[in-house]
Design a protein that fits this description.
single chain, alpha/beta, two-stranded parallel ribbon, about 270 residues, binds D-galactaro-1,5-lactone, 9 strands
Length: about 270
């Protein structure tokens, strides 16, 4: 497939460019920063919040799918969060409809349900109601709502991968439950790109962690079969004072009062 990857210069983007090429996909990259030296893919520099810049890519490139990773990975004011996550998704979906690009894979977040108390037993399913822990989570939920709307209106296949904690290895106790390895991330995105007719779908983007509290069944239904387990690293992870409070809700640190702030910045 020929896949537009937004946020291509970010940590997930860099891993996916290599991983998708290894799996015989052709990547077209989009990011606010210019192509790194030696970039092996077509590279467009621009901002996903600019609908004209997004539309211009679709006018010059022939695409089969979009992997939307761009967005600020931390808490901002509500308007800034909505622009960063929801407006960018809207710009892409409008261009996809106009140019008949039928598949969107979205870097959703566990923070869409982060305010959910950690399940005492069993796993949190995707049927659980959106329960954001931050304005970041609210904007991710709104982006998913938009994907659902475009799936219903226009028949776009749109898969939100609610990513846990992406990284080369887990570094905290919470990560033993929430980690998504680099290789599993590539497996997950490829499954979401190639699953036959998923319509609008949500999955939890984590590895096959022994201590997982999110249900992997929705991902497996789309062909995502994780191979890595954070438990492999457990002996290297030291306990921290924050661990207890971070384990109370699935959103971990984003639920704590350090993140409480007004929705709107006032001068
Ligand atoms: C996310 O969605 C954030 O982008 C990232 O900064 C981490 O906080 C991650 O979730 C997590 O929950 O570990």
């Amino acid at each position: 497939m020929r896949v537009l990857v937004t946020g291509a210069a970010g940590s997930i983007g860099q891993v996916l460019i290599v991983g998708l090429q290894d799996r015989d996909h052709e990547v077209v990259a989009f990011d606010r920063v210019p192509a790194p030296d030696g970039a092996s893919v077509a590279w467009h520099t621009g901002d996903c919040t600019d609908a004209d810049a997004v539309a211009a890519i679709f006018e010059t490139e022939t695409l089969d799918a979009v992997v939307h990773l761009a967005g600020h990975p931390d808490e901002l004011s509500l308007p800034d969060s909505v622009v960063s996550h929801t407006v960018t998704t809207a710009a892409l979906l409008d261009a996809m409809v106009e140019h008949d690009v039928r598949r969107l894979v979205y870097a959703g977040s566990n923070h869409a349900v982060g305010r959910t108390p950690r399940p005492a037993d069993g796993e949190l399913t995707v049927e659980h109601r959106p329960r954001p822990d931050t304005f970041y989570g609210v904007a991710k939920v709104a982006a998913e709502a938009l994907m659902s709307l475009y799936a219903d209106r226009y028949g776009i296949d749109a898969v939100s991968c609610r990513i846990g904690s992406f990284g080369p290895e887990p570094t905290t106790t919470r990560h033993l439950s929430t980690w998504l390895s680099h290789d599993d991330c590539v497996r997950m995105v490829e499954a979401a790109l190639t699953a036959p007719a998923p319509g609008y779908a949500v999955l939890y983007g984590i590895s096959r962690n022994t201590r997982a509290w999110w249900d992997l069944a929705p991902g497996r239904a789309l062909g995502y079969e994780p191979q890595d387990d954070a438990e492999t690293f457990s002996s290297r992870i030291a306990a921290r004072p924050e661990d207890d409070v971070e384990s109370a809700f699935v959103g971990g640190p984003f639920v704590t009062e350090a993140f409480f702030r007004p929705a709107l910045d006032r001068t």
